[in-house]
Design a protein that fits this description.
The protein is an all-alpha fold. About 70% of the residues lie in helices and about 0% in strands.
């Protein structure tokens, strides 16, 4: 097969894989440990409107993973000799750490306290590792005989960014239309004894716990009413902070592409930029994510310090951005802090429990995805129950022991620092333009930092997309997996 044909196959594969990740954004935006709570759609309307059981993603992903492995073999190895110079990695830990991490998950799984939760989580982690290597060895990697490597990556982005746009449109619709109308309908329905609601709709709302029965009377679920009244949006994902993570991950990339689309007419490009800013900014603001807001400020600071300005001007600009951002933060969330910052207090209890569980089970933890099992026994009496630790790093220690936590943390830290060294200054490396490479890095940095306060590692839509981009970024920024990055 000619190299050009191989590259065409890689482009087709990247398009298919990107469309799959886009489908994940649309239908697989729930944590895998909640799979048993997601009902199976049975009508065309439900297939379109509702989330799908997360284990369905595994059966779509598995054939893509097999094809990706075959493409990786063909692109990186010829019979008896390397395909492009020497493919032995200069940073062997970029290979070994993800394999050690997943291998330790398998060891921990053998001693799990809940096999069902662990089985679902292992599939999720398997997907993370495979996505990482697909990004590094297939989609982001140069192909023998082809001088450019960005085509496959560009094809990958079609599905991802289309689904991201749909998710943001959905979020804006929730804020402006769906949530106000639904809140009003529930209030009026409860007041009128649900006579204004069709019986089939009432049954659906009961099944989804939007309406609950208290003392023999059907009433609107107070938790759901509060959610609609708050106006915090989540798009197609599980909850608002997950959407904030998606914006942190993908908005820098989307904005960079919009601003760099010089092939478009100026008026059209201005509209695209304006729509990207509005959808991303409004969706992010309406998530009400406090941690996300602070991370976004920090990422903005990174962009400022990368500009070719004097140090004095950079510091002045950064100070102004910090004052403005913190001022908006204080006004936006003053009611939250006045009420005692309850979610922050709850997270402290989750983290205390994770540390306590890791100390009690230092070698293998309690099993991947099982944080809720020890937590329900040791949580504070007045603490809200949680199924995940709301900290991806601490949960690794709790669920899979000290080795699992160390392998995961070291893998992410090494990958990000490797990319950062190549991205901070513009360089003549193979792959995408410097501005786009930095945008990918900025998004990854924001998403992985948010992992210290969220559970995005357990959501296929977010984690599989992030690890695909992580692998691509390593390949596109100096081709870190090879000794000869300019080869090919």
């Amino acid at each position: 097969m000619k190299p050009e044909n191989k590259f065409a196959a890689t482009e087709i594969y990247a398009l298919a894989f990107g469309l799959f990740l886009g489908l994940a954004f649309w239908k697989f935006g729930n944590p895998v440990i909640l799979d048993h709570k997601i009902f199976t759609p049975s009508t065309p309307s439900e297939f379109w409107r509702e989330a799908w059981p997360t284990h369905w993603a595994n059966w779509i992903f598995l054939p893509l993973a097999i094809v990706g492995a075959l493409l990786a073999f063909k692109q990186n190895v010829r019979w008896g000799e390397p395909a492009r110079g020497d493919v032995r990695p200069t940073r062997k830990w970029l290979w070994l750490l993800p394999l050690l991490w997943f291998g330790w998950q398998l060891i921990s799984a053998a001693l799990t306290v809940d096999p069902d939760l662990t089985a679902a989580t292992l599939w999720q982690f398997f997907g993370c590792v495979v996505c990482y290597f697909i990004g590094a060895l297939v989609i982001g990697a140069p192909v023998p005989g082809v001088q450019r490597s960005r085509n496959a990556f560009s094809f990958l982005l079609i599905g991802i960014l289309a689904a991201f746009a749909f998710c943001l449109v959905r979020a804006v619709e929730q804020r402006l239309v769906e949530f106000p109308q639904t809140h009003q309908m529930l209030v009026e329905g409860e007041r009128d004894g649900w006579t204004n609601v069709p019986p089939v709709m009432l049954l659906d709302m009961k099944r989804e716990h939007v309406v609950i029965t208290t003392n023999g009377v059907d009433v609107a679920n107070p938790v759901v009413l509060k959610k609609f009244a708050s106006g915090r949006v989540m798009g197609t994902l599980v909850y608002p902070n997950a959407l904030a993570g998606a914006v942190l991950l993908l908005l820098p990339l989307a904005l960079t592409l919009a601003c760099g689309a010089k092939q478009l007419r100026p008026a059209i490009r201005a509209v695209v930029i304006a729509m990207t800013c509005f959808l991303g900014g409004a969706g992010f603001f309406w998530t009400g994510s406090k941690l996300g807001w602070l991370i976004a400020m920090a990422i903005g600071g990174l962009y400022l310090f990368r500009l070719n300005w004097s140090v004095k001007l950079k510091i002045t600009a950064l100070t102004m951005v910090a004052i403005l951002g913190l001022g908006i933060f204080a006004v936006r969330f003053h009611a939250y802090f006045a009420a005692g910052a309850t979610s922050a207090g709850a997270r402290m209890d989750y983290w205390r429990a994770a540390v306590q569980t890791a100390a009690k089970n230092p070698l293998t933890g309690t099993g991947p995805g099982t944080f809720q099992r020890p937590y329900e026994r040791i949580k504070a009496p007045d603490a809200e129950m949680a199924r995940l630790a709301h900290n991806d790093y601490l949960e690794q220690f709790s669920d899979s022991g000290i080795p699992g936590g160390v392998f995961y943390g070291a893998w992410i830290a090494l990958a990000l620092t490797t990319i950062a060294k190549r991205n901070w200054k513009s360089g003549n490396y193979a792959g995408e333009p410097p501005a786009l490479r930095f945008a990918i890095f900025a998004g990854l940095l924001g998403w992985f930092v948010q992992g210290a306060g969220e559970f995005s590692l357990y959501i296929p839509a977010l984690a599989w997309t992030a690890f695909t981009l992580l692998g691509c970024s390593l390949a596109l920024t100096g081709n870190q997996f090879d000794k000869n990055p300019a080869a090919g």
